[in-house]
Inverse folding.
């Protein structure tokens, strides 16, 4: 393992992207993600890469689409309102089978909302980051180290499945500093992309990157093919961490920042003899339903903890499918719940067990 | 037997879907001829954003990318930044370039993004069936200006070459038309020059082609060209608005 350094989440993520072979970054300033862009502006020229501050999020994501079309490993980052602006381009990326990494350092919404941490873009990330039938891969780190580790995975998954990948961070993970080990070895070779529009060099037929299919049966067939890929991903790419679930009567489901708070609350509850554990989804799409399934029979109930009015709880309910009670606790508007608040919620439910 | 006339190599041997009398076909050919003349097909990437010409990805033999409405300059920027040896052109209509994509256009131009833009100005939205464009003339009747474009409520047309020629990043801004053989020749030279300037790394080059849309103007192809000469050209004078090599000059 390499030397541990103290880094901000946003900056560690940016450095990890460079290690993963990303040499093209297109962005636009917005709090609380700006450190990603600022770090890239500093580092990209040193590694022969491109940092470009676009005129808007709309332009930035379309620059990403262009660079991805040309076969580059490319990313952009933003925060909630900026992701709304990017949604057009994300739909086009998905419709054109193009890989790209999109970072959302979530802040509170709707509208301009606030600049404090939030998890209120879960629906947007997992249900639809744009118009039309499509999915993107969504990864949710809970530590700065995991943020670093997931960046390379995100690029690889995007290339493997030719689809956009989002890392769903938040203002807390982006701004906090933690000790982190950066990858010791930078990625040296990237996968071949024979589909890329990088000039045919008079050696092949022209490549076309396109999302327009004017003939309905052709588009329907294409979407069926794409959904076969999504089915495969659903079966093979689910990731989650289980914490003290084996003997748990109550399982908390939480991701990202709220999972950190929940972990503290679980430790306090355990000290009081309450058998509570946690499933922490790492992939939000595909949703780790297998982890719920594995535990649904032996627990009495589930508690979903989020920094929103309750969004991921829908996926927990879908996975539990009425077999056990599912309750929700959340703070929103940029407020991070305290471990005590979560502990109280645990006790309320455990008291009824 | 000697071949006297054939399609340029860069142009696919497929029927075009354009309406009779539409000038897109001529402009496509001029682009393909320029690509052939410069021997750059193997490193050229074209971008076809939303509009009548969105299917251009089937008409050119170089690599092609279809872009969202207005976003071609941003997509072009991404492609160009991956490899400066790529020769990148966008093919944009007036709604695409001067309405929904104004920000992308102005900023690609002011960055001096080293790309070539072919801008089709026919003063109307063709693909959606004849609505007002940012370049529709004052008084022009369209589906969404049924009583004529009233500048008090619908504003004035944008003169794109004039506007962009104020930006330092622009290497070439030239307005041409293809209503007659002489003007087609001038247009061909301008398009080839626009590609040459890109290859030389001089910056953003735009050739605006004042074009006709007989279908949505409700005119025969011949009358449409006459309408273009009588109405469009006085508002959109032909000429070179910026040329970094020769300084400001007008034909």
């Amino acid at each position: 393992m390499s030397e541990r350094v103290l880094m901000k989440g946003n900056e560690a993520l940016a450095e990890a992207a460079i290690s993963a072979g990303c040499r093209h970054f297109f962005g636009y300033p917005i709090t609380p993600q700006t450190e990603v862009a600022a770090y890239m502006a500093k580092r990209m020229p040193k590694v022969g890469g491109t940092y470009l501050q676009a005129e808007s999020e709309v332009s930035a994501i379309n620059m990403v689409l262009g660079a991805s079309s040309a076969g580059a490993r490319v990313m952009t980052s933003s925060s909630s309102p900026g992701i709304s602006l990017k949604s057009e381009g994300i739909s086009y990326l998905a419709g054109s089978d193009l890989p790209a990494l999109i970072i959302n350092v979530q802040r509170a919404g709707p509208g301009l909302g606030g600049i404090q941490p939030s998890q209120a873009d879960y629906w947007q990330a997992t249900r639809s980051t744009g118009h039309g039938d499509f999915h993107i891969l969504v990864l949710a780190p809970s530590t700065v180290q995991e943020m670093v580790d997931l960046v390379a995975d995100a690029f690889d998954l995007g290339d493997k499945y030719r689809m956009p990948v989002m890392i769903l961070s938040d203002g807390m993970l982006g701004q906090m500093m933690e000790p982190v080990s950066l990858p010791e070895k930078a990625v040296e070779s990237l996968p071949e992309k024979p589909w890329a529009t990088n000039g045919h060099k008079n050696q092949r037929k022209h490549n076309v990157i396109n999302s327009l299919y004017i003939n309905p049966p052709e588009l329907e067939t294409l979407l069926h093919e794409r959904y076969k890929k999504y089915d495969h991903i659903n079966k093979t790419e689910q990731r989650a961490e289980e914490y003290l679930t084996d003997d748990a009567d109550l399982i908390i489901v939480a991701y990202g920042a709220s999972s950190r708070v929940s972990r503290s609350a679980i430790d306090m509850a355990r000290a009081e003899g309450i058998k509570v554990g946690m499933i922490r989804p790492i992939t939000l799409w595909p949703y780790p339903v297998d982890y719920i399934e594995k535990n649904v029979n032996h627990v009495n109930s589930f508690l979903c903890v989020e920094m929103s009015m309750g969004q991921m709880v829908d996926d927990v309910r879908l996975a539990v499918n009425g077999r056990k009670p599912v309750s929700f606790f959340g703070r929103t508007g940029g407020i991070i719940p305290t471990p005590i608040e979560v502990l109280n919620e645990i006790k309320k439910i455990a008291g009824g067990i | 037997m000697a071949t006297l006339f054939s399609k340029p190599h860069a142009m696919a041997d497929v029927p075009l879907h354009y309406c009779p009398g539409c000038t897109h076909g001529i402009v496509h050919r001029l682009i393909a001829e320029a690509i052939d003349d410069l021997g750059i097909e193997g490193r050229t990437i074209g971008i076809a954003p939303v509009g009548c010409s969105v299917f251009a990805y089937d008409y050119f033999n170089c690599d092609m990318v279809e872009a969202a409405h207005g976003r071609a300059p941003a997509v072009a920027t991404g492609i160009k930044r991956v490899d400066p040896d790529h020769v990148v052109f966008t093919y944009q209509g007036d709604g695409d370039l001067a309405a929904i994509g104004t920000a992308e256009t102005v900023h690609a131009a002011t960055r001096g993004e080293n790309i070539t833009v072919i801008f089709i100005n026919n003063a109307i939205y063709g693909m959606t069936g004849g609505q007002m464009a940012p370049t529709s003339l004052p008084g022009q009747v369209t589906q969404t200006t049924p009583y004529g474009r009233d500048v008090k409520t619908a504003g004035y047309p944008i003169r794109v070459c004039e506007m962009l020629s104020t930006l330092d990043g622009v290497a070439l801004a030239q307005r041409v038309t293809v209503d007659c053989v002489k003007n087609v020749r001038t247009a061909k030279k301008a398009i080839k020059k626009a590609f040459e300037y890109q290859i030389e790394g001089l910056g953003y080059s735009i050739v605006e082609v004042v074009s006709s849309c007989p279908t949505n103007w409700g005119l025969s192809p011949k009358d449409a060209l006459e309408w273009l000469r009588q109405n469009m050209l006085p508002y959109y004078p032909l000429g070179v608005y910026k040329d970094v090599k020769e300084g400001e000059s007008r034909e």
